[in-house]
């Protein structure tokens, strides 16, 4: 498949004439964090800037596949962070980053309620499956 001239390869996907094949069947470790800013324009401005900065910093960490931050389209005070790592142990690089020590002390005072952090392993979608009827 990799030598097929009608295909395109990227770092995560192998696309071949109307079919997408995931190159790696590794389980990706994912953290999803929901944050809710205080009802204050200055808090919202600071939180937005810090989350953008954090994404740019953390996206460079070793074994970090992606570190996305999103803002709700219905409530501008609601944010979600999606952190994707090669494996659960990859978090160590994230936690060893000196920037990590600055994140919570800056962000927590800007929040109306505590962060809601959830941990997941992405399902392996690289193989065909039969859905029971």
TrEMBL record:
GO terms for molecular function: monooxygenase activity. Residues 32-103 form the ABM domain. It comes from the Eukaryota. Transmembrane segments: none annotated. InterPro entries: ABM_dom, Dimeric_a/b-barrel. Coiled coil: none annotated. The keyword Metal-binding does not apply. Keywords: Monooxygenase, Oxidoreductase. The keyword Amino-acid biosynthesis does not apply. It holds the Pfam family ABM. This is Antibiotic biosynthesis monooxygenase. It comes from Fusarium beomiforme.
